[in-house]
Amino acid sequence: MSQGIPTNPDVLKWARETRGLDVEDVVQKLARKGITSDLVCAWENGSESPSYPQLERLAYEIYKRPLAVFFFPEPPEEESVQQSFRTLPEYEIKQLPPRLRLLLRKAKVFRCNLFELHNDINPAPRQILRDLSFRPDVSAMEMASSVREYLGIDLNEQIRWENSEVALKQWRNALEDKGIFIFKDAFKLNEFSGFCLYDDSFPIVYVNNTKSKTRQTFTLFHELAHLFFQTGGIDTPIEGYVEYLEGENRRIEVLCNRFAGAFLVPDHELDQRIRNRQITGEYIQALSNIYHVSREVILRKLFDRGLFDQFYYDRKVREWAEPPKKEKPGSGNYYRNIGAYLGSKYLDTVFGQYYQSRITVEQLADYIGIKVKNFPGVEMMLMGKEATT
């Protein structure tokens, strides 16, 4: 039997709880003979210690933490989920799945990386969160008009974009040019489209890459609204989610949705297009193609105008519901996925530091989250400027 390693039991318990796992979850994930809930509890109360191989699995495979953290004298201080998403009710926070908690931690790591790479100073000459501010009682239309003018992209330019993929890339570039840092990942959770983390210097939007391009675009602007109000937020397509919120939190969530819709599909322009037109499913699709948004965005705006009843609206929502997209292991191009997830601006910054001999190849790999052996492939992808939307 392997000898136990004297780890800090408080850190073991902290690592499990911040991962959103209970003791039985850990037992199932370890899946080894002799690993019981009583043993995991013994590790956490200090009467037993895991072996080194067990600790490695706990650290790297289950808790997704550096091995060294389990020897700290006390759990490290981290912003809690409640602090990150202060507009969410406590019962919703408790139900956040482990995968989302892991992505939240990854987003926080990227934020720390940005502070290091940019010497604590946001490099954008113009920063939208610094230059624009809104009161919570602002109208969605007023907010949308101000943001569009600031970004310098008028509606005609938006309509001229070739497709929704181009639109997503253009919006991502526009926001990153104005000091918002955007990362993506395969959430593996169909009920979540993205989230954001507010920070005075390095605000982050994190997007579910398995969602459609139009849904990802909506998420960018939904989360941008949350950042204006200095709150972390979660974008979910679940119909009726807002009904679970109360007071100021509900008002902000409603405004975030309305702002994203008003920004991407300005009301005055939409009203001109639908005047004296018969509203059909085909015409809703045509409008979504014009603005490079989802049919659901158009559907909601038309429903708010009273152009059809609740029955029709609910039927179309069910009919157009985006099915879960399951990525097969090894699917897609590994290096292009890195480009899409991290974005060219972040990668350019990291590689720029490396080429100027300010960081080692090992540090570069750590910033990007790859193995050193994969460095040449990422470098070739970046040099080739493959699609990174």
SSE layout and pairing:
Elements: H1 9-18, H2 23-30, H3 37-45, H4 52-62, H5 81-84, H6 90-94, H7 98-117, H8 128-131, H9 140-151, H10 155-160, H11 164-177, E1 181-185, E2 194-197, E3 204-208, H12 213-228, E4 233-235, H13 247-264, H14 267-274, H15 281-291, H16 295-304, H17 310-320, H18 334-342, H19 344-355, H20 361-368, H21 375-384
Parallel strand pairs: 1-3
Antiparallel strand pairs: 2-3, 2-4
Overall domain count: 3
Radius of gyration: 23 Å
Major β-sheet annotation = 4 strands, mixed
Overall mean confidence score, pLDDT: 88
Number of strands: 4
Strand order of the largest sheet: 1-3-2-4
Quick rundown:
This protein has 21 helices and four strands.
What does it look like?
By secondary structure, the chain is mainly alpha-helical. The chain folds into three domains: 9-77, 434 Repressor (Amino-terminal Domain) (Orthogonal Bundle); 90-115 and 134-171 and 191-320, no CATH class; 334-384. It has helices spanning 9-18, 23-30, 37-45, 52-62, 81-84, 90-94, 98-117, 128-131, 140-151, 155-160, 164-177, 213-228, 247-264, 267-274, 281-291, 295-304, 310-320, 334-342, 344-355, 361-368, 375-384; strands at 181-185, 194-197, 204-208, 233-235. β2 (194-197) and β3 form a beta hairpin. The longest helix is centred in the first third of the chain and has 20 residues, at 98-117. The chain starts with 8 loop residues before the first helix and ends in a 5-residue tail after the last helix. The relative contact order is 0.09. The model has no long low-confidence stretch (mean pLDDT 88).
